[in-house]
Amino acid sequence: MIETERTGRIIQSDACIREGAEWLFRHEPRFETVWQATGPWPLRLRADGFDQLLSAIISQQVSVASAAAITARMRAAGMIDAATINATSEEDLRALGLSRQKASYAKALAAAGIDFPSLRDLPTQEVTKRLVAVKGIGIWTAEIYAMFSLGRADVFAPGDLALQEAARVLFDLPERPKEKALRQMAEAWSPWRAVAARALWAYYRVDKQREGVL
User: Fold this and answer.
1) Does CATH number 3.30.1360.120 belong to domain 2-44+154-208?
2) How far is it, in rounded angstroms, from Cα 102 to Cα 167?
3) Is 132 exposed, middle or buried (0-12, 13-18, 19+ CB in 10 A)?
4) Taking the mean position of all CA atoms in its chain, how far away is CA 99?
5) pLDDT tens digits for 19-52?
6) Do domains 2-44+154-208 and 50-148 have the same CATH topology?
7) How confident is the model at residue 1 (pLDDT cuts 50, 70, 90)?
8) 172, CA 20 to 30 Å: which among 1, 126, 208, 213?
9) What is the pLDDT of residues 74-106, one digit of tens each?
10) Domain boundaries of the chain, sorted by first residue
11) Which CATH architecture fits 50-148?
């Protein structure tokens, strides 16, 4: 487990997930119930960089299956770097399955010139600030990128519908918590909020028999 003053804990392996899980078990026993129902929670780490952030944009407000299919078409067409996207028309991007809005977001991302390696050493709050400055990147997308591509251990994505629904079921809530309420709820799971998110996605998969995140 790497930890710096600027980045906090960085998840690198299944051992990190287990460490976070054991902390959660002590502070909220229902997470141990989740572990028993789901088995070990997936690591879900990805590389960082342009294509991963583009994939997160593609995943906005569509099903996991749809996002996976569009991402696969984009990659097959070589649309995985800023230069290629810059040289491609929005019409051609739409032909690969992007909506008009997401085609414009892809072009905005390509034009933004983000220094991806520099994000690795920035505090999560600064990472989020830089990413949401780009058209089409909201807080959900920035948090997903920080969680999966940068390995930040204390990031949550309360705007995620699957997390909201899993929290409703696990905590026997009368309705699905809204983003603000779930963000407040997740504060009790710091410094392992990203592990709690993995737990809830795993619980969603078992409860709903489908994936809630790509």
Assistant:
1) no
2) 29
3) middle
4) 21
5) 999 999 999 999 999 999 999 999 999 999 999 9
6) no
7) low
8) 213
9) 999 999 999 999 999 999 999 999 999 999 999
10) 2-44+154-208, 50-148
11) Orthogonal Bundle (1.10)
